[in-house]
Design goal:
mainly alpha
């Protein structure tokens, strides 16, 4: 039965762009129950937040403008997220104790792998369009080229829709994870996403505008988004600290590492180092 279910899951994952992005870019969730709770809270905060924004602002903007604005904001978010990994790695490299810095390298490699895959998948369609356009012979087309083009139109529309959803989901994971800075050090995930959120929200409040949305409603939505993101990031940070993670001690929990390095000594209680 499992052998029959696995191919079906693979097909469903490939067909649905949000599942493909989740499979490629979602970091691993910790084994504890609170890890799963925080992960679900982050997901539902994003879903409920987007639903509230759409429900309260739909009357003030045209329906055809929403996808373009969402894509533009997603691109801005992704551009800011690109700045986080090198800065975060330099900061954590300086802060970490000398004997623990080599433990940061495997996480840095994982981050580079995820980032490279995200960038390749994001720009690949544009590259295919350029290469395909360069190979089209307009002056002396093949007799069956027009028929093939007409038959391929539905496939191109479906592919464009799939890639649009996949792009947005990819940028969502990049923003939610601070461009996967948690791969370098778990504490960088809540810190990085908080910094990214404050940069985006601050820039939008200072230099942005409410456009057609009334300013009180626009400001309330922004402030509520900042508040919920801060509460969630603080809860995740406290949970990771209680699990034994420290900024200066490398990406492994202090408690488990003490138990491995000195099994005869009692482990240091969480939150007391």
């Amino acid at each position: 039965m499992s052998a029959q279910v696995a191919p079906r899951r693979v097909i469903v994952t490939v067909l649905l762009p949000w599942l493909t992005a989740k499979f490629l870019f979602k970091p691993r969730v910790g084994p504890l129950r609170k890890d799963r709770i925080l992960d679900r809270l982050a997901f539902w905060r994003s879903v409920v937040g987007m639903a509230v924004i759409m429900a309260t602002t739909y009357r003030y903007q045209e329906a055809w403008e929403v996808p373009g604005k969402n894509l533009l904001k997603a691109l801005q978010t992704g551009a800011l997220a690109l700045l986080l990994p090198p800065l975060s790695f330099l900061v954590i490299l300086v802060v970490t104790r000398p004997g623990r810095r080599t433990r940061l390298l495997p996480g840095a490699r994982r981050l580079l792998g995820r980032a490279a895959l995200a960038l390749i998948s994001f720009f690949l369609p544009f590259l295919l369009i350029v290469v395909g356009g360069a190979n089209v012979n307009i002056t002396n087309p093949h007799p069956g080229a027009a028929v093939v083009f007409i038959l391929a139109i539905p496939l191109m529309i479906a592919s464009a829709f799939w890639f649009y959803c996949f792009w947005c989901c990819t940028i969502y994971w990049a923003a939610r994870t601070g461009f996967w800075t948690g791969e370098i050090h778990p504490l960088l995930a809540p810190i990085g996403t908080t910094v990214l959120m404050l940069l985006i929200s601050g820039a939008e409040i200072i230099w942005g505008g409410a456009d057609t949305v009334p300013h009180p409603l626009w400001l309330t939505l922004n402030l509520c988004g900042i508040a919920t993101a801060l509460v969630l990031a603080f809860s995740e940070y406290r949970h990771l600290r209680a699990s034994g993670y420290r900024l200066r001690e490398g990406p492994e929990p202090v408690i488990s590492r003490q138990a491995c390095d000195h099994p005869e000594e009692p482990a240091t209680p969480a939150g007391r180092t």
